[in-house]
Amino acid sequence: MKLPEGFLLSGINCGIKKNGYDLGLIYAKDLGTALGVFTINANPAYSVTLSKKNINNPIKAVLVNSGNANCYSHESGLKDTEDIITKLAEELGVNQKNILISSTGIIGKVLPKEKIIKSLPELIKNLNKKYKNFSKSILTTDTFEKVSFKKASLNQKSFSLIGFSKGAGMICPNMATLLGFIITDVFIPKNEFKKMVTEAVEESFNSISIDGCMSTNDTVFVISSNKVVLDNENEKKIFFQKLKDICLDLAKMIVKDGEGATKFIEIQINGAKTKQEAKAAGMALANSTLLKCAFYGANSNWGRIISALGQAGIKVKETINIRSTNLEKKNIKMTVDLGRGEFCRKIFTTDLTPEYIDINAEYS
Fold it and tell me: What is residue 110's DSSP assignment?
């Protein structure tokens, strides 16, 4: 699995976590183009605040820490985060506006600024074309690394994308304690690129839910080194499909790694009046604790579907069509036809288990 042209990665332990990697770096050899999708939580992490400020600039690097959410910890939290990216910028010979940052972990704990700053030279020294250390550095309660790779060759051009994500709990759109990083060597005009990224994220990361809880730290970055110019519509179409595929791969991995989950559930909503209603219906079912418990117990109590839809303001007829594959299986597909229109939507979720309660009762 080869990195897209123009990128290097690194991951080390800087002391935020006792064990395992906790500091990662994506490095663009030349300044790249970045697009970002962020949490809509009204209390965002300091990392989100600064990255939203810098996202429209050419980007040299993305710094990621795990084990600490860098959020609502102390009055100097934002200043400390600025100090970290300023120091990284100095090490890389660029302006701090060319740096993005993401954090994931426990809210309310002070980020150990000095440990991170002290570790930056080592982090930079360890940059290479391998991805394993970076993919490990972004994990928290995840049980496996989430990596997806796509490539294509056409018209004597070759391009590739590699994506990384983390997330297992506090997962509900828009996004979750979800970090996603996708790097590519493709150049597409930014307005077209942005439209592609928005749609790809909406159909993937914004179509999953594990527990109905929205994080303060949700971030997805798509970054290009602009090395391979795609200048005809067919080339762009192929790239767009690869981008959607990689986002959906990563989103599904997050659901499959849901805290305590025993089942992967695909909810297909048909017959909605609008796109918005189709998504609202799917999310109403994915976030229903009663229905998620029914999936865990393989209990086909479809009254819970009617109740959840009604709570979302979606009135359906007594003849509503509900179908499901075997609820005893680990992979379940449920189809609900609202009978109200022509729009459809897929949402991905999990069951709700006693283990989820155990994990989160002890998480601190």
Answer: P
